[in-house]
């Protein structure tokens, strides 16, 4: 690590700056004389551990002058400037800094784009190394002049998802709220009417700092992640289609399909299924889950409350904000789920966790009276009681075996579970 200093900046380099690309997205951490020491204590260990090239304002006096605008409007707020080597590092660094600095606020950086709803993390496209003309030659041969303004060349606009998200001050006029379906700390869910296509849809809200997790993930981050998941699963007809996403202020919203029907929870409590009907439902659900697994995602929070049976008796899976993938960068793991449907002892997410949830669903469909007991005592449940609440002695031996294997992690893949259900159905 090399450190250099001039009268305004201190530079930290992990590779020769002469070998650094001369343009791209730069990341800025905004600071003031009141919070600079806190933000430096938070950010610098991460930047050094990640071996990122960066520079820091050399003194609080310089930062105070900078924030007064004496060096130009484009310099206001800039406490740290970071130079990511490639697009993967760019997006990871933006997201990580967004999490570790959550809750702090600093002066707006006039030349930059705010990252998500962060109060301190910003980014801008421009020169890494200045030249006399302040121009960048793009891959198409055209010249782009770096004027330190919020301008991104077209070829680079897709590199940061957040750049593409519209930002509004009020709800778009074509959306009319019909009903508030739920209100939680992390955000509310609404039924809305879309004047553009004359259809009823669902609008989900993510609130900044709402139900914030240990990692810094909050309601906004979860809904942003769900938007990404739905965009990746758009070829599947049994998950809601994503129609739109946008910010209103610092709150993030997605617009998705409204699926008319009833949750499996309501079916369980109101209907009288026979065993063959239950096995038919479980085969359908397991096939739907399997198709999501084939797309590279584990649902991670599967229960009867997020499975809908529509008016044509088709199965749909909703609420995918806790889904996980081992192939792409995901929000940090958090062991959450609906009480009675997840293994509270797990340390990370695997396919067998969805299998665990599926056999729990099977158990409660077979014994709806047990599900009634669970829902009635949900507030009193202790974590170590969730497993013991499943009274396997009430079941037939075949059902007891498959549920017990699923709960103990002995069914390793979803196809094996599907085969079990199909064999039971055929008996």
From TrEMBL:
<dbReference type="Pfam" id="PF25816">
    <property type="entry name" value="RamC_N"/>
</dbReference>
<dbReference type="InterPro" id="IPR057929">
    <property type="entry name" value="RamC_N"/>
</dbReference>
<keyword id="KW-0808">Transferase</keyword>
<keyword id="KW-0418">Kinase</keyword>
<dbReference type="Pfam" id="PF00069">
    <property type="entry name" value="Pkinase"/>
</dbReference>
<dbReference type="InterPro" id="IPR011009">
    <property type="entry name" value="Kinase-like_dom_sf"/>
</dbReference>
<dbReference type="InterPro" id="IPR000719">
    <property type="entry name" value="Prot_kinase_dom"/>
</dbReference>
<protein>
    <submittedName>
        <fullName>Protein kinase</fullName>
    </submittedName>
</protein>
<dbReference type="GO" id="GO:0016301">
    <property type="term" value="F:kinase activity"/>
</dbReference>
<feature type="domain" description="Protein kinase">
    <location>
        <begin position="178"/>
        <end position="427"/>
    </location>
</feature>
